[in-house]
Q: What sequence folds into this?
């Protein structure tokens, strides 16, 4: 890890710490909402725990990673910080990586806290923990790509609060609905929504049978995995094509 | 007879400080330093830039020699900032070729960055970070070594080191901006209006810092609205107007293209018709007195005629002043010339403004 990456990440962490509003919405809110879901649903079995964990993952990633990263990058671009940093001899990937590292690290921390809350509340061990980890990693990648792809549509930090809403809502709605559906046609169709695969994979991780034949004879986890991978690739390409380092004139 | 070499109406009081860093005095100061690198630091040919339908830069040619301070002057919208953005690698030109330190900034900006210091027209700071934190962050982003404490002292920011950048005054932010641009004494420094918003003392410090870069053999390209700044700092100047370069050269070359001016006052009416001179001589009335103003390409010859005439008729030319054309006079001539040209532009496909 380069000194530049660490320095930018440290600076962004300081900013988050010093900005009380951003600190609360970025740090505390996802944890509070995630914990609230546990107390609201009162899960009793693997099925209900799958719903809770799916929602917690979606909330944390959609809010903590997607919305926060979009806001941070748009704010830095708007204030010409990205442009100034590009006058240094640090590579673009390091500049951007250092900037998004704190929200990503924070989201990992929030997931750990929520996992501890769930364990204390009696959550069972998932039948397929590896699938859950894979789902989380893919979720991070997809929401990061989505954040960078959303920044060109967000001309100001205020606008970013609006431009992130559609995807965040879609993801949370599908995250709430998908885990309670079986693998029927509706579930397959909903899995195509960006981020929806996360809830589906969480459900399969708790139920097991992710690699057994599902609809069409394919492994049950395949549509959700494909959805996350394809959306990550599409959003990544969009970000690469349209990302802007300074405000549009 | 008193013949002043500058016109005080065109010269602000800060000119006194200027003498410390004029290009001529800098050359003297650098006599014992190694010579700057040979060749051209910046080569621009036929550069064109567009924003939508607007032609911001309309085919300019520009050369900045290694080790010189080059000033781009012009009105708002003249194309100065766009030109600097192209040189910095921020803006891809619509046409023409650009080489900065031998590198194409549009395609190899990453390679160029390690040799470049840039001060943008606007900040680009994280407001929540303090002054010293901003410098410490920059230390990690730039491979050229430098000392944050040295720069805090150099730009008089020591007392503001722990203040959030958002709480600095506009002038303090500009100084911090300049500190980042000169960090590690880069090979080429690009400064977009470096002293806008600075008080006279801060401006003098900024001039000193730019002078130090030049002493170290670095190349500086700057834009400014302050003509005295260009006079104080620049080895060569280009005047931009309407996306074109209207004049370029050393100050002497540029001002030589405009007539020298002189003026005086005669108590009462003139005792005889004024002498015939090669330039323009105008007598006017100011109450009971007569004003004498003139413009000429042959100052010594025409002044001699005027003084001989005054001697013959026992006339005292009170407050006689004579001066070569100032940069300001050239600047205004460019603007007037360009607006006249624009009136005829529909008759031409391309207009070259020449002085």
A:
């Amino acid at each position: 890890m380069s000194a530049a990456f660490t320095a930018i990440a440290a600076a962004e962490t300081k900013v988050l710490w010093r900005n009380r509003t951003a600190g609360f919405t970025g740090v505390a809110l996802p944890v509070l909402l995630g914990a609230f879901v546990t107390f609201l649903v009162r899960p009793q079995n693997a099925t209900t725990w799958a719903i809770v964990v799916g929602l917690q993952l979606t909330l944390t990633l959609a809010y903590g990673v997607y919305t926060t990263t979009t806001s941070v990058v748009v704010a830095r671009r708007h204030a010409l910080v990205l442009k100034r940093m590009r006058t240094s001899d640090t590579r673009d990937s390091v500049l951007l990586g250092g900037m998004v590292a704190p929200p990503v690290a924070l989201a990992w921390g929030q997931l750990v806290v929520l996992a501890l809350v769930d364990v204390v509340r009696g959550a069972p061990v998932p039948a397929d923990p590896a699938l859950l980890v894979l789902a989380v990693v893919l979720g991070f990648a997809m929401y990061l790509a989505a954040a960078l792809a959303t920044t060109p549509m967000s001309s100001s930090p205020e606008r970013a609060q609006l431009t992130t809403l559609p995807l965040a809502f879609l993801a949370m709605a599908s995250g709430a609905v998908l885990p309670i559906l079986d693998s029927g046609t509706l579930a397959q169709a909903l899995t195509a929504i960006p981020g929806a695969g996360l809830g589906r994979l969480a459900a399969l991780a708790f139920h097991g049978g992710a690699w057994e034949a599902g609809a069409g004879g394919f492994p049950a986890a395949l549509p959700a995995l494909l959805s996350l991978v394809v959306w990550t690739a599409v959003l990544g390409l969009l970000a690469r094509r349209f990302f802007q380092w300074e405000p549009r004139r | 007879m008193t013949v002043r070499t500058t016109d005080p109406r065109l010269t602000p009081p800060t000119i006194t400080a200027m003498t410390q860093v004029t290009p001529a005095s800098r050359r003297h100061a650098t006599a014992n330093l190694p010579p700057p690198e040979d060749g051209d630091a910046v080569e621009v040919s036929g550069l064109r830039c567009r924003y939508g339908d607007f032609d911001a830069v309309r085919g300019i040619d520009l050369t900045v020699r290694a080790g010189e301070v080059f000033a781009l002057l012009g009105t708002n919208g003249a194309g100065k900032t766009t030109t600097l953005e192209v040189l910095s690698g921020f803006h891809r030109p619509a046409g023409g070729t650009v080489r900065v330190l031998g590198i194409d900034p549009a395609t190899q900006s990453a390679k160029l960055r390690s040799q470049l210091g840039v001060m943008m027209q606007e900040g680009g700071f994280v407001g929540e970070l303090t002054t010293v934190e901003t410098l410490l962050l920059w230390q990690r982003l730039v491979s050229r070594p430098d000392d944050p404490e040295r720069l805090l002292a150099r730009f008089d920011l020591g007392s503001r080191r722990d203040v959030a950048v958002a709480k600095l005054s506009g002038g303090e932010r500009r100084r911090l901006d300049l500190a980042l641009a000169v960090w590690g004494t880069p090979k080429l420094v690009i400064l977009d209006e470096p002293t806008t918003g600075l008080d006279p003392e801060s401006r003098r410090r900024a001039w000193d810092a730019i002078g130090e870069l030049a002493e170290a053999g670095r190349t500086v390209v700057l834009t400014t609205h302050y003509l005295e700044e260009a006079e104080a700092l620049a080895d060569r100047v280009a005047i931009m107007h309407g996306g074109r370069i209207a004049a370029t050269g050393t100050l002497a070359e540029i001002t030589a293209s405009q007539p020298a001016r002189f003026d005086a006052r005669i108590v009462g009416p003139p005792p005889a018709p004024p002498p015939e001179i090669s330039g323009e001589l105008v007598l006017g009335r100011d109450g009971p007195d007569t004003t004498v103003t003139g413009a000429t390409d042959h100052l010594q010859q025409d002044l001699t005629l005027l003084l001989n005439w005054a001697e013959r008729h026992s006339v005292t030319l009170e407050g006689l002043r004579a001066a070569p054309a100032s940069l300001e006079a050239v600047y205004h001539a460019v603007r007037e010339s360009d607006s006249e040209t624009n009136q005829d532009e529909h008759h031409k496909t391309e207009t070259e403004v020449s002085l």
